[in-house]
Amino acid sequence: MKSSNPSKQPTHEPMSVGSSAEMTSEMTSQREVIVNLESGLHMVPCSRIAEHVRDFEGSVCIMVEDRTVDAKSIFDLLTLRAPMGTVLTIEANGPNSADLVNGLVILFERNFETE
Questions:
Q1: Residue 54: pLDDT above 50?
Q2: pTM, full prediction
Q3: Fewest beta carbons within 10 Å, which of 45, 47, 95, 111?
Q4: In the chain, domain spans
């Protein structure tokens, strides 16, 4: 009765850590924010957004109405022309996307002021 031989257990190893990593790398996070800056989303906040997402391995976009822009591009962000009160949707796809999106939400909540 060799069917109960423990050496037959390697079938559990392929419950791959790689699969878990793949799931993480394909993770999508999305949150809404409101522009609370009197001057709207101008050059300084756009540059802080782009700086915050610059090294993110995945994609990051910001959407308003029917427009979607690459959050890594200051120029693209400026084309949003988002005045005070505009609701924006931030979406990130990739590893640690939730942390990245939450960091952007904090920037908006603090009106892009540095500590």
A1: yes
A2: 0.75
A3: 111
A4: 27-109
CA angle 51, 78, 74 (to 5 degrees): 25
CATH fold of 27-109 reads Histidine-containing Protein; Chain: A; (3.30.1340)
- Mutual orientation of helices 43-53 and 97-109 as an angle, nearest 10°? 160
60-102 tens-digit pLDDT = 999 999 999 999 999 999 999 999 999 999 999 999 999 999 9
Structure tokens at 69: 């822009």
What integer is the mean pLDDT of 22-38? 81
pLDDT beyond 50 at 22: no
Q: What angle do CA 21, 25, 30 make, to 5 degrees?
A: 135
Q: How far apart are the first and last CA of the chain?
A: 69
Phi-psi category of residue 83: left, alpha or beta, with phi > 0 → left and psi -120 to 50 → alpha: beta
Task: Put residue 113 in one of left, alpha, beta given phi > 0 → left and psi -120 to 50 → alpha.
Answer: beta
**Which token pair is 96?**
């640690």
Classified as helix, coil or strand, 55 is: coil
